[in-house]
Amino acid sequence: MEWAYGLIAPEPVERAAALVRLASARAKVRRTRARFNEAWHLTSGLGHEEQYREPVLVAAREAYDEAASRCLPEALWNTPISGGISTWPGLPFALLFLEWEARYPQEWTQHAKAWGTKQTLIRKLAANGHGEAVRAKLVDLVDLVVQRAYRCKDREYVRVARAIDGDDLRGRPDRAHRSDNPWAQLHASYLLWLLDRPEIPNTRCVWRAWLADSRSR
């Protein structure tokens, strides 16, 4: 699924080509899912165990799984996380999926919107022990999200920031706080405030109280 990296390419032409590949992959997922549902209906009169062994249903399920493994976000659903996140085969595509949403949110929303998947991936990635390359990518993601208007599930990135907290991470919101971008100023200030207070939960109530206090100064 190397073509998927085109989704985060800076060149619009390359992204457009990747979106064509994605549309084709998603169409195949829909077709194979429909065939699986049809096979399920046709074999529904069998006993539970017998139905799952029925060759028609087995073949339909295998075809769907194969199609889903070559498509986003379906590939992330069909690759269970066993063991640590750092050894998960789906990790590169999880990072790609989140970077796509962070860099090109409108394209992500139009072609592969999956808020629950975004939330789940961020929470799984909010862990210690990442390799240098993965940690650097997570720092970049936090930085990208801090600098934009809030999108659904963005607040989950506080978990990541707390998990990988360090001078290199804090340098990003510190610069954002001093920038001319009002969203960056606001989000960076809140993030730095939370990083200094790890015991405080990142809830809507806490956000509203912090926001009210910051506006009253």
How would the blueprint of this fold be written?
Blueprint: H1 12-42, H2 48-53, H3 55-68, H4 74-77, H5 91-103, H6 105-112, H7 115-125, H8 132-146, H9 157-163, H10 167-177, H11 182-195, H12 204-216
Helix pairs in contact: 1-3, 5-6, 5-8, 8-9, 8-10, 10-11
Describe the structure.
The chain has 217 residues and is mainly α. The chain has a domain at 114-217. Helix content is 68%, strand content 0%. The chain has twelve helices and no strands. Helix 1 (12-42) packs antiparallel against helix 3 and helix 10 (167-177) runs antiparallel to helix 11. It is elongated and about 70 Å long. The N and C termini lie far apart (51 Å). The mean pLDDT is 94.
List keywords for this structure.
single chain; 217 residues; mainly alpha; 0% strand; elongated
Short description:
This protein has helices spanning 12-42, 48-53, 55-68, 74-77, 91-103, 105-112, 115-125, 132-146, 157-163, 167-177, 182-195, 204-216. The protein is mainly alpha-helical and 217 residues long.
Helix content: 55-70%
Largest sheet: none
Q: Total number of β-strand segments?
A: 0
List low-pLDDT spans.
Answer: none
Helices, by number, come to 12
Q: Could you say which structural class the secondary elements and strand pairing correspond to?
A: mainly alpha
